[in-house]
Specification:
The structure holds 2 protein chains of 2 kinds.
Chain A (H helix, E strand, L loop, with lengths): L2 E7 L8 E7 L8 H14 L22 E2 L2 E2 L21 E5 L8 E3 L2 E2 L2 H10 L19 H11 L6 H5 L6 H12 L8 H14 L10 H5 L7 H17 L1
Parallel strand pairs in A: 1-5
Antiparallel strand pairs in A: 1-2, 3-4, 3-5, 6-7
Helix pairs in contact in A: 2-5, 2-6, 3-5, 5-6, 5-8, 6-8
Chain B lengths: L4 H26 L7 H12 L2 H32 L17 H4 L1 H20 L11 E4 L2 E4 L1 H9 L2 H28 L7 H28 L6
Antiparallel strand pairs in B: 1-2
Helix pairs in contact in B: 1-3, 1-7, 1-8, 5-7, 7-8
Classes of the chains: A alpha+beta, B mainly alpha.
Chain lengths: ~250, ~230
């Protein structure tokens, strides 16, 4: 199998980037997208050229590292999949693929396909702590949580923080990420004491990082590899207003 | 709260729903054109203008609502432009990321609707488009009052003016298809069941307003409403 890759190459955050074209051959349909990049990088290294820098870690779809847009789509063409879970059988032999880093002001490019996503870490940090009693390990069922609530909280907690929502959004908005993070603690009893201040602080941090604002177009939900629902955004909008009303 | 992203979204949503409420009342009032007698709408218009204090408080409140809506929406839209400085080189036709045309044209449809509102006020409130409206009067039950019915029929007998009104109402339909659904989302009224209500609701709100308002210029042009 053969593919033509147009890959974004950028030396540093403060230099101009441009697309470079690579012919990738000797591929098989069962290779993952990242394995294909490995093959290309192997060749580039042997030729004494700079390999393509890209983020990757677990390669099993749960860490959220492998951030790149394939033909303008964050994580490529498949539903509910990260880039590492995209296999070459999703493409046709001879296809031209354009590979770009996440595009958003809050995620500046560090090098090639690698973007600085520490803005997400700072939003998480702004959320602060949850109140738990320290000391001996608590009894496993000391705090009963219903099956429905547990599942719901887990739906939100599925978010792996990859940033595809921001990358897909025309406004570079992080609302889906922040909403998922606000909600999964907000649904559980452990998250209640700090619930109001958590949503306010995380939204303030989100605004300060230069993410855009949600305009309810839901491209984020469409590309999310963990299928996080925009219902969480509605819930955060409500939570935020309730928190502000409580303050009055 | 008013400085944060979500706070400003709430301002846009609350002012939006106030304006939807206003246009609904406005439309219901207008539909008295079909009452069979010109007296009905003339008396209604006369009643609205007979308490200047109420009238002007209402007008100023509405003006403030419109201003807040525009300011909050434009400040959000401006930040959104800045937050996405580089677009993808290959983009567009992906079905997964495709967004509704109504949602990306909110500033355009809103601006044209604002232009229409200014024209509409100059037309029927300030009588600047046709000065002869000011002298149209009628006597109902012994009281002299402006003949609103005649003004409307005279105004909409001109196809260009009627056409502009209908186009503006079509844009209001587009604006509310996205706007009304967004109000529900900002208020946090969304889950797997409510989303259907929300989509159908915004469609119905937009369609009823479009049909209700457009009925009058269409009826005048079709000769159903006669002088």
């Amino acid at each position: 199998m053969k593919l033509r890759l147009r890959v974004w190459r950028q030396k540093r955050c403060d230099t101009e980037g441009r697309f470079e074209t690579y012919e990738a051959d000797g591929l098989t349909a069962d290779m993952s997208f990242l394995e294909m990049l490995d093959v290309v990088n192997d060749r580039l290294t042997k030729e004494g050229k700079e390999p393509i820098a890209f983020d990757h870690d677990c390669r099993e779809g749960i860490c959220g590292s492998c951030a790149m847009a394939i033909n303008g789509e964050p994580h490529g063409p498949n539903e509910a999949a990260t880039t590492c879970q995209i296999y070459l059988r999703s493409f046709r032999d001879g296809d031209t693929l354009t590979v770009e880093p996440w595009r958003a002001r809050a995620f500046p490019v560090i090098k090639d396909l690698v973007t600085d996503r520490t803005a997400f870490d700072r939003v998480i940090q702004a959320g602060g702590f949850v109140s738990v009693s320290t000391g001996q390990a608590p009894d496993a069922n000391a705090m009963p949580i219903g099956k429905v609530e547990a599942e719901k909280a887990f739906d939100a907690a599925h978010c792996i923080g990859c940033g595809a929502c921001v990358a897909a959004c025309r406004n570079g908005s992080a609302m889906l990420f922040v909403a998922a993070k606000v909600s999964h603690l907000g649904l559980l009893p452990q998250g209640q004491p700090e619930r109001a201040q958590r949503v306010q602080k995380m939204v303030a941090a989100m605004d300060a990082e230069g993410f855009g604002n949600c305009s309810n177009q839901y491209a984020c939900e469409a590309v999310c590899p963990k299928e996080i629902s925009v219902d969480w955004i509605a819930r955060m909008n409500r939570d935020y207003a309730l928190a502000a009303a409580k303050k009055l | 709260m008013s400085k944060s992203s979500i706070g400003r979204k709430w301002i846009v949503a609350v002012t939006g729903i106030l304006m939807i409420g206003f246009v609904f009342i406005h439309m219901t009032g207008n539909l008295q054109m079909f009452a069979g007698t010109p007296d009905k709408i003339n008396q209604y218009a006369h009643l609205l203008k007979s308490y200047p204090l109420v009238l002007w408080s209402f007008r100023l409140g509405l003006l403030a609502t419109v201003a807040l809506h525009i300011l909050a929406a434009l400040s959000l839209a401006w930040e959104n432009r800045i937050a996405k400085p580089v677009a993808y080189a290959v983009a567009g036709s992906h079905s997964r990321m495709k967004v509704a045309l109504t949602s990306v044209t909110m500033v355009i449809s809103g601006t044209i609707i604002l232009g229409f509102v200014v024209f509409h006020l100059l037309h029927f409130t300030a009588h600047r488009v046709d000065g002869s409206y000011a002298s149209m009067e009628t006597v109902v039950a012994g009281v002299t009052m402006p003949d609103v019915y005649r003004m409307v029929v005279a105004g909409f007998s001109q196809p260009l003016i009627s056409g502009f009104y209908i186009v503006a109402m079509a844009l209001l339909f587009f604006h509310l298809r996205h706007g009304a659904a967004s109000v529900f989302q900002t208020f946090g009224l969304r889950d797997q069941n409510l989303v259907k209500v929300m989509d159908a609701g915004s469609w119905i709100i937009a369609a009823v307003l479009f049909l209700g308002f457009s009925a009058i210029p269409v009826a005048v042009l079709a000769g159903i409403l006669k002088p």
